[in-house]
Write a structure and sequence with these properties.
There is one protein chain. By secondary structure, the chain is an alpha/beta fold. The chain folds into three domains: 2-218, Cation efflux protein transmembrane domain (Alpha-lytic protease prodomain-like, Up-down Bundle), CATH 1.20.1510.10; 223-299, Cation efflux protein, cytoplasmic domain (Alpha-Beta Plaits, 2-Layer Sandwich), CATH 3.30.70; 302-382, GMP Synthetase, Chain A, domain 3 (2-Layer Sandwich). Helix content is 63%, strand content 16%. The protein has eleven helices and eight strands. It has helices spanning 2-9, 18-47, 50-76, 91-119, 130-155, 158-187, 192-218, 225-236, 271-289, 305-319, 351-368; strands at 11-12, 15-16, 242-251, 257-266, 292-300, 324-333, 336-344, 373-381. The strands form three sheets. The chain has a three-stranded mixed β-sheet, with helices on one face. A three-stranded mixed β-sheet has the order 6-7-8, with helices on one face. β6 (324-333) and β7 (336-344) form a beta hairpin. It starts with a helix and ends with a strand. The model has no long low-confidence stretch (mean pLDDT 83).
Length: 382
C-alpha cells in the first residue's frame, strides 16, 4: 500500500521523480529501523543476549544506511556541470559501496564477539515477551523488504535494491534468533554464541555480495544476453537497418546508461537518408528501453570492386572457422585495407592466440591480394 502511494506522489510528466521517491522510501525505512532497533536494544538490556544485540546493531546500521541513502541519492541526482558532463549518477553506486562497507564491518565485529561468547558461555534468561517482540520485528522487516522491492524495480535503484536485500537478511537473522531461543528453552543448551556467529556470517555474506555486485557495475559490467537480444531485436526491426553488432555499455548511473552499437545501412543511401534512419532508431529505442542509444553506421555493400572481392573471400574463411563470427567496417585507404573481425572470446583467450588469429588472417588475405596490405582489428564476442 505504502509503495503505491510513494510512487503516485513521485510521478511527474517525465515518469518518476527518483530523488523524491528514494528520499521518501529511505525515510520510511529509517523510521521502521529505529523502531525495530529500539525494541531489540530493550530486549538486550533485560537478557544480555549477544545474538539479540548483534541483531539490534545490525538494525542500527540499517538506520545509518537509510540516512546515507537519503543524502547520497540527492547528491547523485545533481545535474551535469562543466566538470561532470555526464552528471553525478555514479555517486549512487559509491553510496551502495559505503552502505555495504558499514554492514561488513559490523559483521566482523560481531563474529569476534560471538566467538568470545562461545568460549565463555553463560545461561541467558529470556522474558516471556521476547518471542512476541522479535516476531513483531520480523513482520516490520518483511514489510520493509517488500516496500524496497517494489520501489527499486519501479525506479531502477541499485541503492534501494541493496537495502531490500539487507532487509530480507535481517528477517532471516531474526527468525534464526527466535528458533534458537525456543530450542534453548526446551533443551537447556546454550546456543546464544553460536547463533550470534551464524548471524555475523550471514551479515558478512550479504555485505560481500553487495560489494561484488556494485563493483561489477562500476567496472563496466556488460549487458545480460536477454538485454542484448532485446536491443538487437528492436533495432533490427527498423527498415534500412541490418547486422547489429558490437554492443558496448557505459553506465553513468541508473538514469544515464549509454549503449553504443554498430549497425549496417545500405551504402547507396545518401548521408541525409542514413542520418534520418539512425536518428529515428536512436530516439525511439532509447525512449522504449530507458537507455541512451548511440548507433555507429557501417556501409552495407560497396561500390569498390576490391572490397566486394575481399568480402566474398572473408565469407569463405568464416564458414571454415569456428572462432570467427563476422566481419564489418572494411575500409580501403590507398593500398591498405582495414577490417574489423568479431571473434569467439570464449575460445580465443590468450594474447598469443589473438595474435595468431590476427596474423593468420592478414597473411591469408595478403596471399590472395598481393598488391594490398591488411590490418585486422579484433573485437571480442562473449
Amino acid at each position: 500500500m505504502f509503495w503505491k502511494l510513494i510512487l503516485k506522489r513521485g510521478q511527474n510528466s517525465y515518469g518518476y521523480d527518483r530523488v523524491k521517491i528514494s528520499k521518501e522510501t529511505s525515510f520510511l525505512g529509517l523510521i521502521s529501523n529505529i523502531l525495530v532497533a529500539l525494541l531489540k536494544i530493550i530486549l538486550y538490556i533485560f537478557t544480555g543476549s549477544i545474538s539479540i544485540l548483534s541483531d539490534a546493531v545490525n538494525n542500527i546500521t540499517d538506520c545509518v544506511s537509510s540516512i546515507i541513502s537519503i543524502f547520497g541519492i540527492k547528491l547523485a541526482s545533481k545535474p551535469k556541470d562543466k566538470n561532470h558532463p555526464y552528471g553525478h549518477g555514479r555517486l549512487e553506486y559509491l553510496i551502495s559501496l559505503v552502505v555495504s562497507g558499514i554492514v561488513l564491518s559490523v559483521g566482523f565485529q560481531f563474529l569476534r564477539s560471538s566467538v568470545s561468547r562461545i568460549i565463555h558461555s553463560e545461561k541467558i534468561f529470556y522474558p516471556k515477551y521476547t518471542i512476541v517482540i522479535l516476531i513483531i520485528s520480523v513482520i516490520v522487516k518483511f514489510w520493509q523488504a517488500s516496500l524496497y522491492s517494489h520501489i527499486a524495480d519501479a525506479i531502477d535503484s541499485v541503492t534501494i535494491k541493496a537495502q531490500e536485500k539487507d532487509s530480507l537478511s535481517d528477517t532471516l537473522i531474526t527468525l534464526v534468533v527466535i528458533i534458537s531461543i525456543i530450542i534453548e528453552k526446551f533443551t537447556e543448551k546454550i546456543l546464544d554464541g553460536y547463533v550470534g556467529a551464524l548471524v555475523a556470517l550471514f551479515i558478512l555474506y550479504t555485505a560481500l555480495s553487495l560489494i561484488y555486485e556494485t563493483i561489477s557495475i562500476i567496472l563496466g559490467r556488460g549487458l545480460s544476453e536477454e538485454t542484448k537480444h532485446e536491443i538487437k531485436s528492436k533495432v533490427s526491426n527498423y527498415e534500412g537497418i541490418s547486422n547489429v553488432h558490437n554492443i558496448m555499455v557505459t553506465d553513468f548511473g541508473p538514469e544515464n546508461i549509454i549503449v553504443l552499437i554498430d549497425a549496417a545501412l545500405d551504402y547507396n543511401l545518401t548521408l541525409e537518408e542514413a542520418h534520418n534512419i539512425v536518428d529515428k532508431v536512436e530516439r525511439e529505442v532509447s525512449r522504449l528501453l530507458g537507455i541512451k542509444l548511440v548507433i555507429h553506421a557501417d556501409p552495407l555493400g560497396s561500390s569498390s570492386a576490391i572490397i566486394k572481392s575481399v568480402s566474398e573471400d572473408l565469407k569463405k574463411i568464416i564458414r571454415k572457422s569456428l572462432n570467427i563470427y563476422s566481419f564489418h567496417d572494411i575500409v580501403l585507404e590507398d593500398n591498405k585495407i582495414y577490417i574489423d573481425i568479431d571473434y569467439n572470446a570464449d575460445s580465443i583467450v590468450t594474447s598469443e592466440e589473438k595474435d595468431a588469429l590476427k596474423d593468420g588472417l592478414e597473411e591469408k588475405l595478403k596471399s590472395l591480394y598481393k598488391d594490398y596490405d591488411f590490418e585486422i582489428k579484433l573485437n571480442s564476442i562473449f
